[in-house]
Amino acid sequence: MGKIRKIVNQLEISIENVSSIIMFLILFSVFSQVILRYFFGISHGYMEEFTRWFQIWIAYLMLGVVEKRRKHISIGILPGKLKGRAKAVLMSIISGANLLIAIVFSYMGMKLVFQLEMVGITSQTEIPTPAWIVKLCIPLGGILLGIFSLEHLISDISTLVGKLKKGEGIENDNA
User: Fold this and answer.
1) Count of domains for the chain
2) I need a surface site. Which of 4, 6, 65, 75 has the fewest CB within 10 A?
3) How distant, in Å, are the alpha carbons of 8, 28, 52, 125 from that of 46?
4) Tell me: the pLDDT tens digits for 83-133?
5) CA 35 to centroid of chain Cα atoms
C-alpha cells in the first residue's frame, strides 16, 4: 500500500504542476492578447478560445486533486457530528458514491470523445482544432477523480475494518 500511496501522491503533484503550467499559459495568452491589441491593433480569436479551453482543462484535471484533499463543496453537518464506526461507514459510502460517479463520468466522457473523433468536428478558429482533443479532459478528469476516490474508499474501508476489529460498537461511536 505504501508504494501505491507514493505513486498517487506523485500523481497529485504532477497534476498540480501541469495545472500551474496551464495557468501560466492562460496568463501569458491574455497578457499577450492585450499587448497585441493595444499596441499593434492585432487580435487573434484562437488566443481567446485557447484561454477558455485551458480553464476547462484545469477544472477537470483538478477534480481528482480536490477530491484527494476532500475539499469539494459539501455539507459537513452529518460527518461533523458522527464519530467512530458510524463516521467510517458514512465516509465509505461517500467515497464509494464518488467512485461510481467517476466511473460514469469517465465512461460518458470517453463515449463523447470517440463520437467527436468519428464525426470529425473541429473548432472554427484560425487554427482548426479537433473537438475531441478539447473534450479529452472530461474522461481524463473522471479517471483522475476515480483514482483518488478509490484511494479514499480503500482508506475508509481500512479505517472501518480497524474499528470493527477493535470492537467499537454503537455505544463507543461517541468516543
Assistant:
1) 1
2) 75
3) 35, 14, 10, 6
4) 888 888 999 999 999 999 999 999 999 999 999 999 998 877 778 889 999
5) 33
Q: Which three cell numbers stand for residue 123?
A: 473548432
Decide if 148 contacts 67 (C-beta within 8 A).
Answer: yes
- Dist. CA 147–CA 69, nearest whole Å: 13
Residue 122, helix vs strand vs coil: strand
**DSSP secondary structure letter of residue 130:** B
3-state secondary structure of 69: coil
Q: Which residues contact 90 (CB under 8 A, 6 or more apart)?
A: 78, 79, 82
- pLDDT for position 135: 93
User: What is the pTM (predicted TM-score) of this model?
Assistant: 0.83
The amino acid present at 84, given as its one-letter code, is: G
How far apart CA 79 and CA 124 sit, in angstroms, is 48
Q: What is the dihedral of CA 124, 126, 127, 131, to 10 degrees?
A: -10
| More confident call, 34 vs 76 | 34
Check if the beta carbon of residue 160 is closer than 8 Å to that of residue 95. Answer: no
